[in-house]
Amino acid sequence: MRKKYAFGAILLFCSSLWHCAPAVWQQTDLARRQGKLQEAAQTVETYLQQHPDDAGGFYRLGEIYGQQARWEEMMTAFRRSRSLSERWEPEIRASTAFYVSERLNRGIAAQKQGRFTAALEAFRAAGIIEPENPLAFRLQGEAALAGGDTTLAISALETSLEKDPADRSTRRLLMRIFFATAQFQASLDQASHLEKALPDDREALRLIAYNYDRLNDLPRALTAYETLTADSASASEWQAYAALQFRCGRYNQARQSSQNAIAAGGDRRQNLRAIAQILLITQNFQSLLETAGTILELDPRDRAALRLQQIAYAALGNSAAAAQIAEKLREYQNELP
Question: Domain boundaries in the chain?
Fold first, then answer.
């Protein structure tokens, strides 16, 4: 009789356990359908305190956290589920893929609308859900940059590059940001990496030259500019090269580079002024007189050109012409800046 009673008690106990879990999930599903997500989460949390080895319970808890946008807690619950059983792995992968895609799309839409803070929050969520996804961090960097936070942009882009070192678009963006924020060695590192992969990449070649120039590494800067301008049709590149050559005392080369800048469509007046300074330093007064005259053809009231012309006339011994220029300067001094 006792054995029969004991066996019946065991059956009753097992039956109560069997029916406990479905009742919890029915209650939880009802709360979720009614939008009572906090109530649903608390119900599952209480259940898991009593059943800490239920992998399915942790998966369901993670799903509820996902609906609440509690991303870190969601991933903690999913990791707990995985550690207990592989049974829920397909569902976990499907859920994380869904939420990553949804957050990325939400962030892209927000960024297009100029809502950079919202975009950044969405991309951050994607990075929490899928920490090895380089796109989530690259988009974080782009959103932070668009919102004016270059420090955060650099951090996110560096993280993205760590996860995908072959991503040239991220490396290029980092190169540009570092240069714009006067972090020239860091910009040079990124530019050099790009140039190794793409030897003919003009932007990488340009920033290698510009960074060496800013770092005052003159020998390497000269070599880099020589490579850059070998087939350059860029006025700005020739002007930068001319400025460096001038600093290095390579006046004839600087003069030629300024002429190349003019030929490439650069500002004629600005480059003629650079040439005039070279002619003044090298005391080539006849050419200085001609160059100053060309500038004055562009702007007859260019006071700097008039002064150079006055100096050239005086150096060539034409004191009368120098005096005429001096008189003209006196007439213009109240008109010219």
Answer: 181-231
